[in-house]
Design brief:
homodimer; DNA-binding
Amino acid sequence: MLIKETKTHEVTTDVVIFTIKNGKLMVLLVRRANEPFKGKWAIPGGFIRLSEDLDAAALRILKEKTNVQNIYLEQLYTFGDPLRYPNSRVITCAYFALIRSDDLELSFEDKSQITDVQWHKVNQLPSLAFDHREIIEYSLKRMRERLELCPIAFQLLPKKFTLTELQYSYELIMGKKLDKRNFRKKVLSSKIVKELDEYTKSTSKRPARLYSFDNITLNSKRGHFFS
Amino acid sequence: MLIKETKTHEVTTDVVIFTIKNGKLMVLLVRRANEPFKGKWAIPGGFIRLSEDLDAAALRILKEKTNVQNIYLEQLYTFGDPLRYPNSRVITCAYFALIRSDDLELSFEDKSQITDVQWHKVNQLPSLAFDHREIIEYSLKRMRERLELCPIAFQLLPKKFTLTELQYSYELIMGKKLDKRNFRKKVLSSKIVKELDEYTKSTSKRPARLYSFDNITLNSKRGHFFS
DNA sequence: TTATTATATGTAAAAAATACACTAATGCAA
DNA sequence: TTGCATTAGTGTATTTTTTACATATAATAA
């Protein structure tokens, strides 16, 4: 009983963009200008063009919404519940990204589709359009798994950072405290950070040594990092 | 310079099905009856129906080609290079599965699309259609990663199996030898297998105790298993 | 100069991973 | 029926990794 189906699917990409802002783990949301879910917050996304690679589409969306390029972007999962999108079949290929919130200004040129772009606390999300809450939750889970394998947290930090800042990123994402000495031991022995001859200046108290990440090969599995 | 695109994408699912047969890791391939790549071997796949969930589509494909249900099936990755499919844009959501080859007979009802179904040795693949070689390679990589986290190898074994058989599956997938005592220690201490009061009979030599897997929760991350 | 605060550091104990070699049970052939 | 061949099954010592934990240091502000 095969039904001949002539209509084809629509395919979008949605990008879950994380950052740390004011000591909180945040996710970037846009407010929808149109139905369905008009007025609701959603993950930035858009239709994949007919001759556009999936990664390229996700990068384009990212750039359109945040002006950011050259970022850690990873395909997350493809969500295809036939009921996830009202009144039509839209399959979405979700990505996630980590960025530094300081060096970017939120922008959205396409006022016809979006009325607002804002960072939202991950543990205090508004009501979301579609299955976007599920996508964010899955994204968090995956980000935690990735963090154990490879130090993607550096994407959240400036080029030069202190080990305390790095540890703080880890603690935010993993949602638990880590021991300072063990953390430093592990980071330093893993050879993924380069010790600089510079120190923090501006703050009061003892200056902290600065470090930088050196030639990180992302996606490479280099044994486990933190668990 | 936005080009208005009215045509939409086609979406397929391809399922990489692994088994162990005659002591080799095998993958199921079908021979294409039509262009493109007429006569070439390919991963079994097909178009996702308009109101069909992705997982359901993959399960359907699996059943159509192998008559097998209730299997370990995991979404692998979505491949969307605009050039992966000649003359049209086809995005494919790939899955992978592990099955026991004994208790299934290969079948393909749709002779109009497939002329043959066969198991092929993973390390001796024929020339494949589309980007299917890449998909299989990625699938292998992912299967190895999964195996370290959760004992999916049991899908390759009969309900009752010996620890030697289990170890052999691991060695085949991981592509390396494991120490027998350490392997058994780890498996037994993990509490994932249940010792039975039965032994192998038919073979010559000392009979081996049989074990079974007990209520495996797949996809659950239970710490690491083998590395 | 003293108090305050964040930086920075090492060691001992516990747990996990690894390396490694012999005995046990059976079938088969002499 | 004995012993030879073959696969099953077992334990310990060593190394590596992970964890737990407390005090001295460098700067600023009062």
